[in-house]
C-alpha cells in the first residue's frame, strides 16, 4: 500500500481533489514542531514527522504534507551551504548520471487506447553521456512520431499522461515494432537504444485472476512465456511489474528465468517500502526496484529503500509519477546515489522535460568528472 496522499474529499474544491487539509497540516501541525530544527538534520526531522503522524501509511497528516516538508529541508540545507541539491543529498568524490528510461508509447491507465501494457520505454544505453542519451531519446521520439503518423494517421500522435504517444493500438507487438523502426530510422542500433516495458499488470489482472492482454486472457504461466518471447524478439532490457502487486512467487520465477540479462523491476509490488523490499530481496522476486518519493513519504525513508536495493546488488531506478509536478528533485536524487536509471517520461511536456534539463545542468556542473551509467548495460 502506498503512503496516503491527503485530498480534501467530497465537500472540497477541485471536485474533492484539493489539498487545503494537507497545506493546513504543514502550516499548523508540522510547521510549529520543526521550527528551530537544523534543516541539515534530515533524518531527525523526518522521524519527528513520522512520529507526529503516527500511522503506518501517513494517513493522518498526509504523505503529501510530510514529503513537501522533507524535500524542503533538503533544499534549505543545500541553500544554506550554497551547494547543489545532489551534493547535499550525498557527498561523494565521483557522481554517476543515470540512463533515462523514456516512456514513448503510453497505454494502460495512462492513455485512452486499448494497449494493456502501460509503458513502452527507450533506454539509450550506448550514449556517451546522460545529455547525449537525452538527445538520442528525443531524436527517436521524433522518428516515432513519423512512424506512427505514416502507419496509423495523425490521431496516433496524441499523447498520454507521461507525454508518450497514445496510438489506437491493441497489440503489444505493434507498439514495440513502431519503436524498433523509430530507433533504426534515427540511425541507431538496437544495442545503443534498448527497449523496455512497464506492464503495470495489476491494472489488467481481472477478478477471474487472469491477465487480460492483447485480446486474450492469460494465466501466470502463459503470461511468463509471453514476456519471455517478447524479451527475445525485441531484446528487452527492462521489464517492470510483470505480475500483479502481490505476486512474489511469479516475480521469483520470472527472475530465475530471465533475470540474468533482463532487469526485472518491482514498482507496485514494493511501493518504495522497506519491509516489502526486504521480502523481495529474500525471495529474489526481481533484481531491481523502482523508487518513488511519494510512495513512502519522506526523503530519509526513500534513501533507505534505495540503500536496501543497492545492498542486495539490485538495479535501483528512480522514478517520477504519471501525475507530476515540474520539480526536478528526482534528477538530484538519482545522481546523488548513482541510480543507474531514471524513469521520467517522454522528452515532451514541461513536467517531464524539467528533469531532463536538470540532469543536463548537473552534468555540465560536474564537467569532465561526470560519469554515465549507460555502458554497463550496452
Ligand atoms: P503511476 O505510474 O505514477 O501512475 O503510478 C508510474 C509507474 O507505474 O511507474
Ligand atoms: Zn510502474
Describe this structure in words.
The protein folds into two domains: 14-83, Enolase-like, domain 1; 95-376, Alpha-Beta Barrel (TIM Barrel), CATH 3.20.20.120. It is globular. The protein has helices spanning 20-34, 42-53, 63-81, 85-89, 130-152, 172-185, 220-234, 248-258, 274-282, 293-296, 299-311, 329-337, 350-366; strands at 96-97, 99-106, 119-123, 194-198, 211-213, 216-218, 238-240, 263-266, 288-291, 315-319, 341-343, 371-372. It starts with 19 loop residues before the first helix and ends in a 6-residue tail after the last strand. 44% of the residues lie in helices and 12% in strands. The protein is an alpha/beta fold and 378 residues long. The model has no long low-confidence stretch (mean pLDDT 97).
Amino acid at each position: 500500500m502506498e503512503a496516503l496522499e491527503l485530498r480534501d474529499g467530497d465537500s472540497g474544491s477541485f471536485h474533492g481533489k484539493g489539498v487545503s487539509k494537507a497545506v493546513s497540516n504543514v502550516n499548523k501541525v508540522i510547521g510549529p514542531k520543526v521550527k528551530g530544527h537544523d534543516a541539515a538534520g534530515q533524518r531527525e526531522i523526518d522521524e519527528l514527522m513520522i512520529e507526529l503522524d503516527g500511522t503506518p501509511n501517513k494517513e493522518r497528516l498526509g504523505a503529501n504534507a510530510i514529503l513537501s516538508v522533507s524535500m524542503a529541508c533538503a533544499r534549505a540545507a543545500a541553500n544554506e551551504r550554497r551547494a547543489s541539491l545532489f551534493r547535499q543529498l550525498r557527498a561523494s568524490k565521483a557522481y554517476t548520471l543515470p540512463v533515462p528510461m523514456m516512456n514513448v508509447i503510453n497505454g494502460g491507465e495512462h492513455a485512452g487506447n486499448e494497449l494493456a501494457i502501460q509503458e513502452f520505454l527507450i533506454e539509450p544505453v550506448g550514449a556517451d553521456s546522460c545529455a547525449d542519451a537525452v538527445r538520442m531519446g528525443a531524436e527517436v521520439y521524433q522518428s516515432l512520431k513519423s512512424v506512427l503518423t505514416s502507419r496509423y494517421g495523425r490521431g496516433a500522435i496524441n499523447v498520454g499522461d507521461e507525454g508518450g504517444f497514445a496510438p489506437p493500438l491493441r497489440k503489444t507487438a505493434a507498439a514495440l515494432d513502431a519503436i524498433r523502426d523509430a530507433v533504426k530510422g534515427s540511425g541507431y542500433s538496437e544495442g545503443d537504444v534498448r527497449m523496455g516495458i512497464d506492464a503495470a499488470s495489476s491494472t489488467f489482472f481481472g477478478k477471474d485472476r487472469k491477465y487480460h492482454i492483447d485480446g486474450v486472457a492469460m494465466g501466470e504461466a502463459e503470461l511468463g512465456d509471453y514476456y519471455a518471447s517478447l524479451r527475445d524478439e525485441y531484446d528487452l532490457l527492462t521489464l517492470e511489474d510483470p505480475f500483479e502487486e502481490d505476486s512474489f512467487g511469479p516475480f521469483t520465477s520470472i527472475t530465475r528465468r530471465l533475470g540474468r540479462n533482463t532487469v526485472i523491476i518491482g514498482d507496485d509490488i514494493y511501493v518504495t517500502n522497506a519491509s516489502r523490499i526486504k521480502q523481495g530481496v529474500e525471495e529474489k522476486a526481481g533484481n531491481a526496484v523502482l523508487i518513488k518519493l511519494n510512495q513512502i513519504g519522506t526523503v530519509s525513508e526513500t534513501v533507505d529503500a534505495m540503500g536496501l536495493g543497492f545492498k542486495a546488488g539490485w538495479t535501483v531506478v528512480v522514478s517520477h509519477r504519471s501525475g507530476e509536478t515540474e520539480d526536478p528533485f528526482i534528477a538530484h536524487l538519482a545522481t546523488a546515489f548513482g541510480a543507474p536509471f531514471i524513469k521520467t517520461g517522454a522528452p515532451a511536456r514541461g513536467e517531464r522535460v524539467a528533469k531532463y534539463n536538470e540532469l543536463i545542468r548537473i552534468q555540465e556542473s560536474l564537467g569532465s568528472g561526470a560519469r554515465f551509467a549507460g555502458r554497463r548495460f550496452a
